[in-house]
Each structure stands twice: as structure tokens, then as C-alpha cells.
Amino acid sequence: MFRGFEMILRGKDPQAGLIVTPRICGICGGSHLYKACYALDTAWHTHVPRNATLVRNIAQACETLQSIPRYFYALFAIDLVHQVQELPHV
Length: 90
Prior knowledge:
Helix content: 55-70%
Mean pLDDT: 86
Number of strands: 0
Largest sheet: none
Low-confidence stretches: none
Order of helices and strands: HHHHH
Oligomer: single chain
């Protein structure tokens, strides 16, 4: 999905993605960092040791476990506790 990261990072050092992308989204920064790192590894043909991949996957799983409740309770559930604006009686 296009999020515009490509436009922001155009013309910058490739490693800037490691700094910029996690800060764009307030919920899933770790996921964006993981993918920016993966993109650099792919572009530079980096050999990532098996244990490093394992640590990255564990960190990604932890990110997922904490980002889902954070999104739900911090952004979505707030709408559930506000009183619904009443429509004017006709």
C-alpha cells in the first residue's frame, strides 16, 4: 500500500528510512522500521545471520502484540465511550 514514504525519502540517504519511517505512524513504528531495514538488506544484498532474523521476527511479534491493543484502546475505543450526538427531534 502506498503511504508516501517514498516521496518523503526521495533524494535522501537510504539509511534515512530507518529514522523517518518509524516516526510517521504513531501506532506501528516497529513494523515500519522492520520493513525499512528489510528493504536495505535486500537492496544491499546483506547477509543476515539466522539468529538476527529470529530476533527481528520476535521483535515484530512483540510489536504486533502491543500495537493492536494500543490502536484499539487509544484510537478506536474512545469513540465507544463518548455520548452519541442526538439528532434533533422533528
